[in-house]
Amino acid sequence: MPPIDWSNLFTFTVSPIELVVRGTLTFFFLFCLFRFVVHRDVGALGISDLLVLVIIADASQNAMSGSYKSIPDGFVLIATIIGWSLLLNYVSYRFPLMRRFVLPRPVCLVRDGVRQEHNLRRELISDEELGEFMREHGIEDLRDVRRAYLEPDGQVTVIRQRKNREADNQGRHRKAV
After folding, report:
1. What is residue 89's three-state secondary structure?
2. Is residue 152 part of a domain?
3. Under a CB-based contact definition with an 8 Å cutoff, are residues 30 and 74 in contact?
4. Confidence at 126, pLDDT banded by 50, 70, 90
5. 98 & 159 share domain
6. Tell me, what's the pLDDT at 118?
7. Order of strands across the sheet with 107-111?
8. What are phi and psi of 170, to 5 degrees?
9. What average pLDDT does this structure show over 139-156?
């Protein structure tokens, strides 16, 4: 069994400032990539999405680390990444202008029972995927949908037409009388 070099294990092998700069640049590059290019897939990951994340993590590791070898190097890098994440969450919570940059706006997929073709095409959502989203919400017919939105987290929310609610409320009122 090879001996452990305890001095190299607990001393910096890369400048902490360099680690912070590398971590910061890589964090913001990946943030922009996911915010502006692949934000639709954040909420639900498929097999290919997971594979892309693993490859990106592996590729970005060298850019961030500069081949560090010690525990403190890793701690500084992890703290930098978590720090930026917390700071962006805090700033987007406190300042609406920053929230617009950090979080994409919801995208309307269905309006008053009509598919919004331009938005579906831009988000690369097929007819089958839209149908799946609707079935997940118990919707069989798009005419029952007042609005359906692709949310910033990649999930789809659906608001049903009012006439269905009013009919349900009238039916409940008649039963109660």
Report:
1. helix
2. yes
3. no
4. very high
5. no
6. 96
7. 114-115, 107-111, 145-150, 156-160
8. -65, -40
9. 91
The alpha carbon of 124 is separated from its chain's Cα centroid by a whole number of angstroms, namely: 16
Q: How many angstroms separate the CA atoms of 3 and 91, rounded?
A: 47
Distance CA 147, CA 60 (A): 39
pTM of the model: 0.62
CATH number for position 137: 3.30.240.20
pLDDT at 29 over 70: yes
Q: What 3-state DSSP class applies to 45?
A: coil
Structure tokens at 113: 């029972």
Q: Clarify whether residues 144 and 62 are in a common domain.
A: no
d(CA 28, CA 36) in angstroms, rounded, equals: 12
- Residue among 120, 102, 105, 108 nearest 35 (CA): 102
3-state helix, strand, coil in the chain (%, to 5): 65, 10, 25
Cβ atoms of residues 16 and 76 within 8 Å: yes
Q: Give the structural domain span for 139.
A: 107-176
